From TrEMBL:
Assigned keywords, A-Z: Isoprene biosynthesis, Magnesium, Manganese, Metal-binding, NADP, Oxidoreductase
Keyword Endoplasmic reticulum in annotation: no
Gene that encodes it: dxr
Gene3D superfamilies in the cross-refs: 1.10.1740.10, NAD(P)-binding Rossmann-like Domain
Pathway in which this enzyme or protein is active: Isoprenoid biosynthesis; isopentenyl diphosphate biosynthesis via DXP pathway; isopentenyl diphosphate from 1-deoxy-D-xylulose 5-phosphate: step 1/6
Function: Catalyzes the NADPH-dependent rearrangement and reduction of 1-deoxy-D-xylulose-5-phosphate (DXP) to 2-C-methyl-D-erythritol 4-phosphate (MEP).
Domain 1-deoxy-D-xylulose 5-phosphate reductoisomerase C-terminal: 135-214
UniProt binding sites for 1-deoxy-D-xylulose 5-phosphate: 114, 140-141, 161, 184, 197, 202-203, 206
Residues the entry annotates as binding Mn(2+): 139, 141, 206
Protein name: 1-deoxy-D-xylulose 5-phosphate reductoisomerase
InterPro entries membership: DXP_reductoisomerase, DXP_reductoisomerase_C, DXP_reductoisomerase_N, DXPR_C, DXPR_C_sf, NAD(P)-bd_dom_sf
Database matches in HAMAP family: DXP_reductoisom
Catalytic reaction annotation: 2-C-methyl-D-erythritol 4-phosphate + NADP(+) = 1-deoxy-D-xylulose 5-phosphate + NADPH + H(+)
Length: 376
């Protein structure tokens, strides 16, 4: 007789967001997973719904939802729940911090928070190794490469949609408002990542994420535009074989894979050949200056300082843009100036504490720069 698999305990960090709520959908379809704890920022309504719907016992948030067991910290939530899997889906540096906590308690991390690998890739990987934690990517392109991965790789390619600015005449991009930039052509996602798709800072993050996850030199990671986000990733093998991972853009698929790996249990829509979009375009240099600026920096060094500054400054600038304090094209200025400031300090990152310190330094600089030099 076949033995019944034990139910896996799941904690979702960022449960009320785009990845968080889609994780809830997936868990409901799959069965065999129990959400034992969630964390969220301020969306009490969605959090309460998830807690009631799935019978979640514990939560962590600054907000009290009035029922369930509220923990005082992320660490307390993890201690009380002893999860098998933590889904890390909080954006920005807050997400980096919570990923470090998860690395001390979980058996597996389903990692959506790409910022953790951007800011602290080597430390995240070391901790995962030391604590025997499986690090499974949720990001669609990285899930694709992870699913295609085998030794003997010549290079990989990840795709970009081009975001909200891809068809806008260059001279009109500076006029775009948050409501324009938040219209992503293929995915429905949180605010920060949707703006990052438009500057292609998201793709720069993803190149770094791929470099860390698959231990590939930057020169072996290519990026092309695929307008329908139908192709997610391509692996080119040394014997000439090319493997393509494709399918309709739906984050529930990589989320499910990260939960069920190495098995495949999720059911979803299977595209017809008429829906295939296999055309790849070059990324335009003038349209996405920050992407190319960052790619240049990857050539010079593998140091973390500029990557931490990139995340901190971009987080500050995207916030300011979404609050209508700066223009879309100002994001580039804030990020460049902050990275240049941090590079001048010549700090070498030796520890997780250094990561926190540089984030602080870069964030303060970016905030001051926005206030004094760019604010409308
Ligand atoms: N969305 C997607 O399709 C993809 C996302 N990712 C990555 O996944 C991560 C999450 O993205 P996404 O789901 O789109 O983001 P959302 O903005 O949709 O959701 C963010 C979640 O994090 C919570 N949160 C925000 N700030 C804090 C904080 N300071 N403390 C605790 N919780 C907080 C929010 O809570 P609340 O809303 O209650 O305030 C919400 O639950 C990002 O790193 C992103 O780059 C990667 C690939 C695809
Ligand atoms: C769904 C996902 O993985 C996002 O990271 C996606 O890649 C964003 O779209 P862009 O391709 O426009 O950056
Ligand atoms: Mn992605």
């Amino acid at each position: 007789m076949e033995e019944k698999a034990a139910v896996k305990k799941v904690v979702i960090f960022g449960a009320t967001g785009s990845i968080g709520t889609q994780t809830v959908d997936v868990v409901k379809q799959l069965g065999g997973f129990e959400v034992v704890g969630i964390s969220f920022g301020s969306n009490i309504e969605i959090a309460s719904r998830i807690m009631r719907d799935l019978g979640v016992e514990y939560y962590f948030s600054k907000k009290d939802i009035g029922f369930g067991k509220r923990c005082q910290s992320v660490d307390e939530l993890l201690e009380k729940t002893s999860p098998d899997i933590v889904v890390c889906a909080i954006p920005g540096f807050e997400g980096v911090k919570t990923t470090f906590s998860a690395l001390r308690y979980a058996k597996r991390i389903a990692l959506a928070t790409k910022e953790a690998l951007v800011c602290a890739g080597p430390f995240v990987k070391d901790l995962a190794r030391e604590n025997n934690v499986e690090l499974i990517p949720v990001d669609s392109e990285h899930s694709a490469i992870f699913q295609l991965y085998e030794p003997h790789i010549e290079k990989i390619l990840i795709t970009a949609s081009g975001g909200a600015v891809r068809d806008v005449p260059l001279e009109r991009i500076s006029e775009l408002k948050p409501s324009d930039i938040l219209k992503h052509p293929t995915w429905s996602m949180g605010g920060r990542i949707t703006v990052d798709s438009a500057t292609m800072v998201n793709k720069l993050f993803e190149v770094i994420e791929a470099h860390e996850l698959f231990n590939l030199e930057y020169g072996r990671i290519d990026v092309k535009i695929n307008r329908l986000s139908f192709i997610h990733g391509i692996v080119f093998l040394k014997d000439g074989v090319i493997k393509i991972h494709a399918g309709k853009p739906d984050m529930r698929i990589p989320i499910a894979y990260a939960l069920t790996y190495p098995e495949r249990k999720y059911h979803s829509y299977v595209a017809d050949v008429e829906e295939f979009d296999l055309t790849l375009f070059d990324v335009e240099r003038e349209r996405y200056p920050l992407f190319f600026y960052g790619l240049e920096l990857t050539k010079d060094n593998d140091d973390l300082a500029w990557r931490i500054a990139l995340n901190a400054a971009d987080e500050v600038a995207v916030n300011a843009f979404l609050n209508r304090e700066i223009m879309f094209t100002d994001i580039e200025k804030v990020v460049r100036m902050t990275i240049e400031y941090i590079l001048k300090q010549n700090i070498s990152v030796q520890s997780i504490e250094d990561v926190y310190e540089i984030d602080n330094l870069a964030r303060s600089y970016a905030l001051k720069y926005v206030e004094k030099e760019v604010k409308k």
